[in-house]
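Shipment paperwork, digital attachment
Item: protein structure file
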Amino acid sequence: MFIKMRYTALVMIFLFLISCDNDEDIGPDTKASFEAIVNGEGVSLVESDSLTNPDTYIKMSSSLSIRTGYYDDSVFKDIYVFGMDLGKLMMGEDTVSNRISINFVSHLSHNDLDEDGKISKALFEDILSEGDKIFSGNYKTEPGISIEWHNSKGDKWTSGELFLPGDSTSATPDFSNSSFKVRKSESVDPVYGFYEYSQYLEISFNCNLYNVNGDSISMTDANFKGTYSISDNY
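Attachment content:
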């Protein structure tokens, strides 16, 4: 009897340890990461644990910018850009390099917001929901996805006609072979108290990117993992 009980206890402990290991695999990654093939060359970025070396420190950041919009069928809509940046920390006058920017562009009217004129949790989750998304050719006139990339030399590229800071390309974007999919979108507890909502995302995409001269490069097999957060006083 003692031997049987001892055997049963060992089995229960073994199963408990397995379940703990599995739980670690299920939860959202604590560090953001990005990998892709850019014009045939592999690139990889992983969020740094701590600021030990400014030259190699990789930072993940979330942003929300609201830009004056336009009238759409007599309804005024502002341009909301939900952005996630992962890349080298900028110090002083450093050139931006090795940085990916993934932006969800939404055109929202006052009627889309809650009674306080803010973004509700339901709207936040809907914008970042799972599924296929379309690219925006011009974020000022078309909602959708906008990708920006700064390579190791500091050259900047965008998936649309316009860079978010305002520069334009001379190219007409070709989205025929482009795709963007949110594979996983999961509400998580905000890491810091000043965040209102946080959403863990796993994203895959392919697209062409253009510089100000109209030259193009390809970004394929791109995969991003990270948490987007919105502050309570945006």
